[in-house]
Every structure is written in C-alpha cells, then in structure tokens.
Amino acid sequence: MSDASSSRAPIRVAVLVTLFRTPQAGGHVKVWERFAEAAATTPDIDLTVFFLGETEGVEACGPNARFHRLVPRWGTNRFAFLDSGAGHTDLASFHPRLAALLPAFDLMVSTDHFAFGRTAERVQAAGGPPLVHSQHTDVETLTRAYAPAIVGRMLGERLGGWVVRTLDLGERLAEAEAKRLRRHLAVCRHVFLSRADDEAKVQAWFPALPYSFLGRGVDLERFSPRHRDRAWLESRFRVPPGQPVLLFAGRADASKRLLIAAQAVARLLAQGHDLTLIVAGAGRDLPEAQRLCGPRLIAPGVLDQRDLARLFASADLFVFPSESETVGNVVLEARAAGLAAVLSGRHNGLGHLVVSPGEDGFVVTGDGPLPWANAIAEALTHDLRAVGAKARTHMEATSRPWPQVFEEDLARPWRTLARTRPDA
C-alpha cells in the first residue's frame, strides 16, 4: 500500500452474511471471522461483517473491523421444521434496518442471495454503493440434501416422501435456488469465486461479469503436527492405547454425508477391525451414526479451534465423504496438522486436494459405504504418519496465511471496486 493511499480515509466495506454467528457455525461464518481478524493488518480497509443475531449489537474485532448483528425479520429459527443443520437464515426479501445502514459504505459484498443480499440489491439500485458477490456455499447441493428432510418434517415421513419423489422436489428446489442466485449475480459488479466449477457456471451465465478467485488461509502454527498428543487423545476420549482413531469433523448430517462414514466404519467393525470413530460436530444424523457404530463412535460435539487442532494432530485418519464443498477448510487444516485424509473423488468432493493418492492422502472414486470401507481398510495398511507428513509438506509449500489471502484476494480488488467518496 502506497503512502498516498494510506493518507486517504479508509474504504468502508460491508460484508453481508445472512447467518447466525455462533460457536456451532460452519465454514461460511468462520471464514469471515478469520478475514475480520486479518483486516487488522490492512488499515486502509474499514470492515464491517453483518451477521444475524437474537439482538442487535456490535462487537469489535480490532481497530478497523467489527461484527454487526442484526435481528432477522423472518428467521428460520422460528420454525422447527426448517432446522436443517446448515445454520438458520432470514427468509425476508428486505431488511429495513440493514438498508438504512448500507448507504454509509463504499462497497457491499454479499455472500448469499437471501435477506441481506436481496436488500443490497435494492440499496444499489437506489444509488447506493456498488454490490459485489463472494460465493461460499454450494446452495444447489445443500438444497438437494436438506429439502426432502424438511418436507418430511412438514408433512410426515410417508406423505412427505411421496411428495418429494413424485414431484422430484429436491431437484426442483435446487433449480429454483440456482435461478435466484443467477438473478442476484445479474446485478453484481464482480464475483469472487472459490472453485473452477463456479467459474464455468459464471462464464456461461454472464460472459462479461468480472470475477476473481478467493482463496482460504491456513494457520500453520495452530494446525501443526507439533501439537500431536496421543496421551491426551486417549485420555480425553477414552480410547484404548494404540487403537486406530478415525476422525470426522463438521456438520453431522446429510450435507457432509456422515452416514457414509458411519456405515463404512460399521462394516469394518463387523469384519473385526479394531478402531474408533470420533465425530467432532453436531447434526441430525448423529444418533443414527451412533446406532450404527455403537460405543466405537465417540461424539464430543463441536470443539473449539484449539482442541480441534490438537485432535487433528493426534488422530490417525481423517474420513470426510462430503460432496458439497466449495473449498473444504476443515480438510486443509487437517492436512496442515499432518493428518492423512480419505476424501471423495466424485463431483464436489475434495479428492483434488490430494496430490499423489496413496502418498499424501487417499481418494474414493466410488459411492456408498462399501467403497469407503475398502478405502479406509486400505489406508490403515499404510504408514499414516508418513502420509500425513507429506500432506503437511504440501500445505507448507502451497498455503498462505489469512492476512496474505485477505490482502491479495480481497483488499486489492476492493480498492478498485469501491466507490470514491468526495472526502477521499
């Protein structure tokens, strides 16, 4: 940043996340917590990240960054049948309080096309600051995963299942979400993408829409093999000494395909394998996973970053069948901690993060519990510490710290995209 730019008033950026910020929140929320922390090293950016909250309030996150909670108008938390596990949002098409605040900013960054994003569309149309979009969630895939269960809770499993199958409701609703995203992007000045699939989609929809890629940072000090403490793991989680420990971390539901992991582990247990599965997370599929694996599944709930980093470094194998990821922060962190991972090589899986299958991780190209059980059994025959060490080496060579990602992928484009104020 030049001396001239440092003498100007900071660029005021509003990031819009129509989700509640809670300890149980997923990667979409966590990413913006990390970026807000990183903004402290960029004094010419004044960052406000808007989240949903039970009450309105502002929480400072450094001298030039803060979290601003706004009360939802039609929060999904009011309706028990809409509790999907992916985090509650606001179903309103307009948020008056947010609309009153946004004109004071120089740039609006939507991260979804729900209440906050729709409000920003109207603010921009009324002469407000420019609107850009940052793509963080595969809404289509999540809709396919969650919609059938929501309909089942509304109508009952039997009638709801019939409606979903007859109307192909999961696919129809996923297509509706794709259309809504397309309408939102049509009014955005720029889009920040996380994966190549989204690039192809945006280019097909809007060939002239400028775009760039937004990476993810990794804290190589926090997530490091040096935190390995097997005695702590065995004591904390009551694992017999020397027993292989598999780890799943994330939402314990259909979006992350926990039951594929649990069914695979149940097969291995039935075949006589001696192992434990730790599920670090919470969600609707956890009781069924516990039923499948019995006492060999340990569920400590959602862990804080310190304990999760320690667990990554101390477990033997990370098992993550999810096929709804845009980046997969949790896998990057596991690999940084030196934990070998078994990942899906199918569409929207994270198998592409493995550079050399069998050497720095494992990739499952089939679907269902049997291919996953076979892949886990094969992985357990390897020197997993050596596999994890190669994953760590790759992360050291390719990852960037959060402040660097913030400066290179966000702050630099924001400086160009933000409107110029008369007092600048």
From TrEMBL:
Keywords: Transferase
The keyword Phosphoprotein belongs to this UniProt entry's keyword annotation: no
SUPFAM superfamilies found in the cross-reference section: UDP-Glycosyltransferase/glycogen phosphorylase
UniProt superkingdom: Bacteria
InterPro entries: Glycosyltransferase_grp1 (IPR050194)
MF terms in GO: hexosyltransferase activity
PANTHER family the UniProt entry points to: SULFOQUINOVOSYL TRANSFERASE SQD2
Name under which the protein is recorded: Glycosyl transferase family 1
